[in-house]
């Protein structure tokens, strides 16, 4: 089975992203390109990275009215990413229209609650309840709206999967034991995330900021 690690290449620097992907390509299952990369390099940059022949996860986390999100996704159709993200909080119609606009082979996954947020953040933006309740509510919405899966933390993935056994579960906010957490708040180890039911893991800085990114990807892979 190919690696379940998708490396988040969070840089605006095309040459750096390309060099990193080239180094780690045999020890990851795909690469994730996010806002930082896309704002600097656009569709041409994504195409160039796709030449490395690794699945591309385009993490642009769309969140707007249904018409705008659908048109934005249509504009990306020629890129045929393996995975793309929208925010579940955009609501049912937006999720339905996002899925309808995406290429057939692209998994549309809905971000439930960012892994950089915790209970107090949730309260400060006006939501009642805790992260678990919030993730479950949005997982149920995503499932019934017909997208392919959700993004959640490793702390909620087991419950989300129990609710949606056929869903696709993306887990970021993973850190090797004793790894630096940075701005992430709901963190588990890669092994814990896989044991809890993650379909794929998103790993950024533990790989990209390592002295030897390829070795870091291998080391994480060896724990799975
Ligand atoms: O809830 C979410 C959704 C997406 N992300 C993205 O994953 C990576 C994580 O990077 P690390 O360096 O491993 O922290 C990053 O690209 C985020 O945009 C997330 O962290 N949490």
Give a topology summary.
Layout: E1 5-8, H1 14-24, E2 30-34, H2 35-50, E3 56-62, H3 66-76, E4 83-87, H4 92-101, E5 107-111, H5 119-124, H6 131-145, E6 149-151, H7 157-163, E7 168-171, H8 190-196, E8 200-203, H9 205-208, H10 213-222
Parallel strand pairs: 1-2, 1-8, 2-3, 3-4, 4-5, 5-6, 6-7, 7-8
Helix pairs in contact: 1-2, 3-4, 4-6
The structure holds the ligand O=c1ccn([C@@H]2O[C@H](COP(=O)(O)O)[C@@H](O)[C@H]2O)c(=O)[nH]1.
The site of ligand LLZGTKA7 has 16 residues, from β8.
Identify the notable features of this structure and list them briefly:
binds the ligand O=c1ccn([C@@H]2O[C@H](COP(=O)(O)O)[C@@H](O)[C@H]2O)c(=O)[nH]1; decarboxylase; 224 residues; 43% helix; pyrimidine biosynthesis; 10 helices; 8-stranded parallel beta barrel; orotidine-5'-phosphate decarboxylase activity; RibuloseP-bd_barrel
User: Mean of residue pLDDT?
Assistant: 97
Order of secondary-structure elements: EHEHEHEHEHHEHEHEHH
Strand order of the largest sheet: 1-2-3-4-5-6-7-8
Name the CATH architecture.
Alpha-Beta Barrel
Listed once per kind, the bound small molecules are: the ligand O=c1ccn([C@@H]2O[C@H](COP(=O)(O)O)[C@@H](O)[C@H]2O)c(=O)[nH]1
Helix segment tally: 10
Question: What does the model show?
Answer:
The chain has a single domain (5-222), classed as TIM Barrel, CATH 3.20.20. The protein is built from ten helices and eight strands. Strand 2 (30-34), helix 2 and strand 3 form a beta-alpha-beta unit. Helix 1 packs across helix 2 and helix 4 packs across helix 6 (131-145). The radius of gyration is 17 Å and the shape is globular. With 224 residues, it is of the alpha/beta class. The structure holds ligand LLZGTKA7. The ligand O=c1ccn([C@@H]2O[C@H](COP(=O)(O)O)[C@@H](O)[C@H]2O)c(=O)[nH]1 binds next to strand 8. Belongs to the OMP decarboxylase family. Type 1 subfamily.
